[in-house]
Amino acid sequence: MTSSHSSTCDGYPEWIYDGSDIPDPFGYGERAVKFLRALRHPKSRLPGGAFDLKPWQERIVRRIYGPCDQDGRRIVRNVAMLLPRGNRKTSLGAALGLLHTIGPERVHGGEAIFAASDRKQARIAYDEAIGIVRAIPTAESKLKLTDSKNRLTAPKTGAFLEAISADAGTQHGRTPLFALVDELHAWKKRELWDVVRTGLVKVPGSLLMVISTAGRGQENVAYDFFDYARKVARGEIDDPATLPILFETPRDADWLDEELWYRANPGLAEGFPDIEGLRQMAREAKERPGDREAFRQLHLNVWLDHSADPFVDMLVYDQGAFPVDIDEMEEYPCWLAVDLSSNNDLTAVVAAWEHGDGYIVHPWFFCPEDNLRGRAERDGVPYPEWAEQGYITPTPGNVVDYRIVEDQIRELCARFNVQEIAFDPHMARNMLNNLQEDGFPAVEMRQGWVTMAPAVKELERAILGRRLIHGGHPVLRWNFENIVVHVDAAGNTAFHKGKSKDRIDGAVACAMAVGRAAAGDTGRSIYDSDDFTEDMGWF
Fold this sequence. Notes:
This protein is of the alpha/beta class. Helix content is 35%, strand content 17%. It is elongated. Residues 55-230 form the Terminase large subunit-like ATPase domain.
């Protein structure tokens, strides 16, 4: 094994290949395997079109259904499977859905669901299951297919299999015995996820199976779910009911190492996905950064940052997540920066203190209180949870109340040794004037190359040098994750949003605060300098 595998994910399922014993005291694992092998598949090349259950897939099935407690109850209730594209995860999921609908895991009136982000994606596993049913002689005639409802029903038992999607409105009242959640990383909203999870706990012996490729970013339901599975795999959490099956690739691994491809893709040794196809994609990806990121994410299961062109590697950024006790910073010189943004988006105030040859930073965020849930769905991040945890201050109404922001700044000035409060004057003229009239050291810091390029460079130096301590604040991290960098002909770097909905306000304010702390000015803006001309101040 090459050195590129030395830092593989802790959840890599070695048990799939080591031939170790999988307990099956009641024979439920063997029963499930026999059922799957008795199925037919329209694309199978085996004699009679038999369902092609590969050895590694069989081990997974036995590991899910075999282990039981002394009363015969299945131990595994949650399966977290990260599997790259092309490894036939849909076929396996569809077959298991049938196991709970027409197979030995069925119960009278039992509900099995295939859940996905949209109708088209939800139909993929459903159509696969229908194809399997139609490949079995006489099976279709014994079942009822309601295509308009994406539902397959077994009339004798009342058990049914149905495809549902997150964009199909409310699904409350569900009580599934089996739920296959497909490509969770693509779910923009969590409402259906919550419905599925809460419905599963209503039924004894239910099973949740999440099969997905890797995603992007950390502030989403998929990252939370699979990160929990990683902790189970590492032994940090004792949860026998969760089975992690994580075919992941370390972010620092050599993505061109074909041995790594085989490790991340268990089907590759069996001929799927096609090795020559992967090689062609890799050749093209060497020349196109966007394709390279897609190759790493979708074919090697590398969980990426949100931005395809990040400001810094977020693994490096995360090394500054040491706890920050700002009570200990009250006597030290402090620089504040404020990005008021627009009224209905995030507003950020960031404090920076010099710390050796680096910096300690701490943010305060504000957002409108109205419709926090809707904003969470729009931006794909947990605003309500952040508000409950104190990471964001919601202000009354549907726009940010700048009076509350100004009061916070005044409190910070009373608490800390504030040398300067830097504002982007575009949105802050009234607040800037109010503070200046009351004697606070408020100054302008426009967002042009002349001021922001040195600030961004100093911030980058601190992060790459592991000299920025930020306490792991989740909202600030999300803002950094959203940054797309633009570089001018002179090599100056500026921050931009990756997409129109992305928020980078905290990162901008952080750069401003660090930049002013590095300059060490105490109340004198560069715009008061004789070196400043109007054409320098804007992009």
